[in-house]
Protein: MBL fold metallo-hydrolase
Amino acid sequence: MPDVPPVEDLGDGVWSLPVPIPGNPLGFTYVYVLTGPAGPVLVDTGWDHDESWEALVQGLGRTGHAVEEVRGAVLTHFHPDHSGLAGRLREASDAWIAMHPADIAVTEHLGSVPAETRRASIADQLRRSGFPDEDVRTLLDGPRPFTPSAVPDLALEDGAAVDLPGRDLRAVWTPGHTPGHLCLHLADGGRLFTGDHVLPRITPHVGRFPLLSDTGDPLGAFLDSQARMGRLPDADRLVCLPSHESRFTGLTARSEEITAHHEQRLDEMAALLSEGPATLWEVTSRLAWKRPWTGMRVQARHMAAAETAAHLRLLEARGLAHRSEKDGLPRWVAVAPARRPA
Structure:
């Protein structure tokens, strides 16, 4: 687990404030603090844990502010390491909480469905994807799904200005990692808060939830969002401030690297499907992963299957794979590209 770095003054009224994620290999999430005459605004809040809350409160003190002074917080997306403390922050400061409407809708949905119902639904998806009964039983006996954050009270659309007097901070909608993921462009400061959309070394997870959904194309949206990065004003002069790892420059090149990784993965899957029809379990378990498939916990296998499902959906959209159903299990097979006339 990485060491949690210190609070850092990045200049021009911007601070990085690492908030720990106890017991998680990610280690921490960078919460960014933007100061202003009407009170600071946060980018993300961090994980919902007493240790995390204490780090947020003490870190704000290092910036010269009390938590009660926080004007608002923009959540880059609904994942708990980014949004978990939103409710506690709002109670302590009466701050507004903003997020893209697509992720607000996800948060509302997750909050309306009991955790046990969500777990049973995931187990059913694994079963219909060809996962062995042992994995399904392990998931049903495992930890409860995460509790969603408090529902934000402000919807922040693409291009909208954040309520931060004296600064030009605007939302850049980058769907893929989640339906409503936001980057935030500080136009007057030459910075881009990239959330989990662009990270300097690791490739963000892009999965399809539910696994066997008949709608949506998260990976297609994600690749379109990556292409958008190079079209931002002065893209390669921007200092990129991600939620994990370290800040970086060279936004266009990094987005192209991430895109190339996914294109390579798509080619690998198309090659597997050319050998014959395969279930989601069969495709996922035959791919190479950073950790050997046999050593993965079932929760990690679920995430891997969601990523595989997103790639299969894009292959379908490109006309390179076809999905059918046999014996109650969906299967995919490669479709040869149409030959151009001579």
Summary: The chain has a mean pLDDT of 95. The chain has ten helices and 13 strands. The CA atoms of residues 102 and 179 lie 6 Å apart. The longest strand covers residues 14-20.
